[in-house]
Specification:
With about 260 residues, the chain is an all-alpha fold. The protein has one domain (about 40-240). About 65% of the residues lie in helices and about 0% in strands. The protein contains seven helices and no strands. The radius of gyration is 31 Å and the shape is flat. Keywords: Membrane, Transmembrane, Transmembrane helix. It comes from Lolliginicoccus lacisalsi. This is DUF4328 domain-containing protein. InterPro entries: DUF4328.
Length: about 260
C-alpha cells in the first residue's frame, strides 16, 4: 500500500510590513544633564533676579520723585484725590514688589556664593573649611549678611591675587568687591533710616523722607547692579558660562542617493 506524502506548503512571498525608509532608524542618544541640587538651581537665578531687582528699585525711586513733585505742587493748588491716591498706590506697589524681589535675590545670591566656593575649591583640589549651610545662613541673616558674604568672596580673590597679580579678571573682581561691599552696608543703613523717617509727624519731615526713600532706592539699584557685575566677572575668572547652555544632540548621518 502506497502512502501519499503531503505536499509542502508554498513559501510566502517576502514583503515589507511597512514602507521602507532609506536611512538610519536609530534615534541619537541625548546626553542626560547632570542632576542639580536645589541650591544649584537657586544659584542659577541670581543674575536674572539681580537685573529685575535693579529695575524695580529704579522704578520705585522714580515713583518717589513723582510723589515729591506732587507734594511741591500741592503747596499752591489742590490735587484731585484720584491723582494723590494713585501716586500712593504706585509707590506702595513698587516698594513691596521690589522688597519681595530683593529677598529672593539675596537668597539666590547666597546660594550662588556657596556654589561658587564649592566649585573653586574643587578646581583647586582642596576642601572648603567652612560648612555650606553656615555660609548660606550667615549670608542672608542680619547682621551677619553685612560682612560675611564679602569675607567669603574676598578669601578667594585674595588667594587668586597672590597667585597671579597680572590677571585682569581677578583685579577687576577685587575692584568690584571693594565697590559693592560698602554700598551693601550703606544700602542697609539707608533702608532702615528711610523706614524710621516715614513715621515723622511734620509735613516737611515727611517730604524729606520721600527724597530719602528715593535715595535709598537708587542705592539699592546700584548695589544690585554692582553685585551682577561682580558675579559676571567671577564667572569669567573661573570660565563658567553665564547662561545655561542647552545640551546638543549628536549628529545623525543618513544615506543619500545622488541623482
Amino acid at each position: 500500500m502506497r502512502t501519499v506524502q503531503p505536499k509542502p506548503a508554498p513559501e510566502r512571498t517576502p514583503r515589507y510590513t511597512r514602507i521602507p525608509t532609506w536611512g538610519l532608524r536609530q534615534e541619537p542618544s541625548r546626553p542626560e544633564p547632570a542632576p542639580r541640587t536645589r541650591l544649584q538651581a537657586l544659584a542659577g537665578y541670581a543674575p536674572l533676579l539681580l537685573g529685575f531687582t535693579a529695575l524695580l528699585y529704579v522704578a520705585a525711586a522714580l515713583a518717589e520723585l513723582i510723589r515729591y513733585g506732587m507734594v511741591l505742587a500741592n503747596r499752591d493748588r489742590l490735587l484731585a484725590p484720584v491723582i494723590a491716591n494713585g501716586s500712593d498706590l504706585l509707590v506702595v506697589t513698587l516698594a513691596c514688589t521690589a522688597l519681595l524681589f530683593a529677598i529672593g535675590t539675596v537668597l539666590a545670591c547666597a546660594a550662588w556664593l556657596v556654589e561658587h566656593r564649592r566649585q573653586w575649591f574643587a578646581r583647586e583640589g582642596l576642601k572648603d573649611p567652612r560648612r555650606p549651610r553656615v555660609q548660606f545662613l550667615a549670608s542672608v541673616l542680619p547682621p551677619f549678611t553685612l560682612f560675611y558674604p564679602g569675607t567669603l568672596l574676598g578669601e578667594l580673590i585674595h588667594r587668586e591675587t597672590e597667585r597671579d597679580r597680572e590677571n585682569h579678571d581677578v583685579a577687576a573682581s577685587a575692584v568690584l568687591l571693594r565697590a559693592w561691599w560698602p554700598l551693601w552696608i550703606v544700602t542697609w543703613a539707608c533702608a532702615i533710616a528711610s523706614a524710621a523717617w516715614r513715621i515723622a509727624d511734620t509735613i516737611q519731615a515727611q517730604a524729606n523722607g520721600i527724597l530719602f526713600a528715593a535715595l535709598a532706592n537708587v542705592l539699592a539699584a546700584g548695589c544690585a547692579i554692582a553685585a551682577l557685575l561682580l558675579i559676571r566677572r567671577r564667572q569669567a575668572v573661573q570660565g563658567e558660562s553665564v547662561e545655561t547652555e542647552r545640551p546638543r544632540s549628536p549628529k545623525r548621518w543618513i544615506a543619500s542617493v545622488s541623482p
